[in-house]
Prior knowledge:
The complex is a heterodimer.
Chain A: H1 3-9, H2 11-33, H3 38-58, H4 70-84, H5 95-121, H6 125-137, E1 140-145, E2 148-153, H7 160-177, H8 181-193, E3 196-201, E4 204-209
Antiparallel strand pairs in A: 1-2, 3-4
Helix pairs in contact in A: 1-2, 1-4, 2-3, 2-4, 3-4, 5-6, 5-7, 5-8, 6-7, 7-8
Chain B: E1 4-7, E2 12-15, E3 23-28, H1 39-57, E4 61-66, H2 73-82, H3 86-103, H4 119-131, E5 135-138, E6 141-144, E7 180-185, E8 203-205, H5 209-219, E9 223-229, H6 233-248, E10 253-259, E11 262-264, H7 274-281, H8 285-291, H9 294-302, E12 310-312
Parallel strand pairs in B: 3-4, 3-9, 9-10, 11-12
Antiparallel strand pairs in B: 1-2, 5-6, 6-7, 7-8
Amino acid sequence: MSEETAAAACGEAGAEFVRQIGEFRSRFVEAMDDDFNTAAGIAVLFEQATAVNRFIETQKLEQPEGEPGRPTAVWAARQLVEIGRLLGLFLEPPAEAAGAAGDLIERILPVLVELRRHAKSNKDFATADLIRDRLGAAGVTLEDRPDGTDWRIDQPAADLIDQAMALLIETRTASKKNKDFATADLIRDRLAEAGITLEDRPEGTIWRAGG
Amino acid sequence: MSLRVYNTLTQKKEEFEPVTPGKVGIYLCGPTVYKPSHIGHAVGPIIFDAVKRYLSFRGYDVTWVVNITDVEDKIIEEAARQGCTAMELAERVTKNYLDAMAALHITGIDEMPKASEYIGAIIEFVQRLIDKGAAYVSGGDVYFDVTADPDYGKLTRRSIEDQEGQRELQSGEKRHPGDFALWKEAKPEEPDEVKFDSPWGQGRPGWHIECSVMSTRILGDTFDIHGGGMDLKFPHHENEIAQSETATGQRFAKYWMHNGLTRFNTKKVSKSDPAMQAALLEMTLSNLLENYSGELLRYFVLSTHYRRPIEYSPEEI
């Protein structure tokens, strides 16, 4: 895609954005021309990444109505990658990083679902409802079906993983207080199977995704 | 094109003008392969890989050379300690180094000459210096006569009078304490594989000579950029200049780029525990690469300007 096409896609905002991206490129070259100032070059890359992200947000490119503008953002991202490769960056696939986070929530949610089922079977509807509501507030919808409960991640909160883990730890702490060790152990064991370790500390329980 | 490079030789930023228009020749002092490399060894290659990528982007045709010192005291000692031959050890450590370079996406090195493959060329070069009256034989050693080079000391701005004896303990006698070995007589207890025949008896090259020989052989008597850590400025780089310019009569490297050294810095390890500090600094690149991606380490190194020291600690990474 050429600069002109990229600019045309989003009207005036697009043209201004494209001009900005061009400027980042010039500033990167300026930085490297000045005795190979890679530190300054990297700073420019960061600024460019922020600008692209801001463009995506303000133009609502992730919503259906933002579709026409997406190619412009993609073009801008490619420019960033091209420049970054001059430093030998962006050569490794980023999928690893995103995949890991995506994986993690897929491993935590089943534990919450099972915990809710376990609570309901003990007639602890307060806990069951708490889980459904807190997940709902964090952008995850639970759907109870005859053969099990599904979840849908609609609008995940930025800290969804932290919220989900906090919920699990809270529930476990409360269970232990009530001497309901079966529930407490269930939580710990299921998490361990999912590769997440809990560490009980005097100041509170912390968690770690191992391996 | 207004690319500017800080030149240690002039101590200022100069507008970059290559010796041959459109082409750039770069020589970087490489590892002595006696033990696995640590992060400090990776800094130079990461920097120059980025430099080469950028210069290519700016339209230059770049040739980048990194040498491998595979004949050296430390290799002989370590091999004896491990009970293997020096060549075996060197090969093993070289492979470890090359694997690390690949993991760090350092793809731009065009040639990696080995000292062991340049013995003939080194002997020829040393003989040239002797013929010019700039080097002399003493026992089975050959020394460079620093008084023969009127410019000696121009890289680090020292005069010959400032010189103390170097850290070389040689069998022969030196005329001047600043003189340094070009060729070292073989000791009887050393294994045969590190003894090379020469007009002056069996022996092997001194520390400094190989870089002069390899760089000029591959890149020409005068080339553009010579790189290395700041710790190599003196005596190593100073001596390279003396050797090369005396032998060829031409200017050696036009631009000298020196990078800052890696400083180990963490709050976790108390300063009063030098053994622990040393152990952590020595953490090998292989270990680091098991825990951090090559790209991350590249980013870590390049986020500091190359001339500044790098603060290295697990937290920083």
